[in-house]
Amino acid sequence: MHRHTAIRFETLFEEEVYKGLTDFPKHLSSKYFYDEKGDKLFQDIMAMPEYYLTDAEFSIFENHTEEITTLFRKQGGHFNLIELGAGDGKKTKILLNHLSQNGADFTYQPIDISQNVLNGLKASLAKELPDVPIQTKQGTYFEALNELNGSNTSRKVILFLGSNIGNLLHDQAIEFLKQVRALMQEEDLLFLGVDQKKNPQTILDAYNDKTGITAAFNKNILSRINAELGGDFDVDQFLHWEVYDPESGTAKSYLVSKKEQTVTIGKLDFQAEFGPWETIHTEISQKYDDRIIMWLAEKSGLQVETEFTDSKKLYKNYVLRK
Ligand code: AVI
């Protein structure tokens, strides 16, 4: 039975879990994959051979270091290299190293929701690239961007890598890009990493690896509900399922209930009923081509200045301006 009286939620997580599991069809947001265990599983995904995205972006940075850093330095003077959702900074370190060795006047400003991630990044940079000035900001992209903007007038180069934009629906991506644009000056750059449309099988393999790491990552959202909201999901009774539509370029992840079952979520004081093979939609990972990117840029008032790709054209980094 669902509780239909007005419920007071203590956190957005509680509210979204309740709404998502009482909706039809059911859904949960992929932003909740990332607790400590989820962060670790995502690191494992990035290291898998099937997950070509990370290697492709890494190779773009390695093969085009000079051109990319020259673009960043084009206007001269001090600039802030801001990274939205920095993670372990592995790819960015290639650029940081090159900039620092060539005497660029810049400050690296990684933004991440997780202080844990930022501490790790700070420690590894202090060891590997001690000359790079770093200023970390914990928070959501916009809180942190706004704060950085208010406190500093330096030129900005904003990095949004790893096809993170692909986890947003087109409307959300446009809203996001518009908000980034509002914080940009004429001379600022947005450096955007996006996965490309390709052989559909390559995409399905990347999001449904045989070792089951992606399945564990997807199911981690249920484990989180168990741990944080007193849920009793039996994660083995759900199947990780991936589909890819080559026309729209949208990969979608689901958790599929293997049987009729009832799950109690203690903290929310409600029970979610699942029919056999009922789905919970958990994530989209959008794939793009130049036309989609041009359309997104136009809708959000940005212009594509140039782009970089890897030898197999699996992935692209676009440079955008206001
Ligand atoms: C973080 N994000 C860009 C990843 C992606 O490719 O959509 C998350 C992920 N989901 C499954 N595998 C990786």
TrEMBL record:
SUPFAM superfamilies per UniProt: S-adenosyl-L-methionine-dependent methyltransferases
Cited Pfam families: Methyltransf_33 (PF10017)
Catalytic EC class: transferase
Top-level taxonomic group: Bacteria
UniProt keyword annotations, A-Z: Methyltransferase, Transferase
Residue ranges constituting the Histidine-specific methyltransferase SAM-dependent domain according to the UniProt record: 13-321
The EC number(s) this enzyme carries: 2.1.1.44
GO molecular function: L-histidine N(alpha)-methyltransferase activity
Gene Ontology terms describing biological process: methylation
Protein name per Swiss-Prot or TrEMBL: L-histidine N(Alpha)-methyltransferase
Organism: Aggregatimonas sangjinii
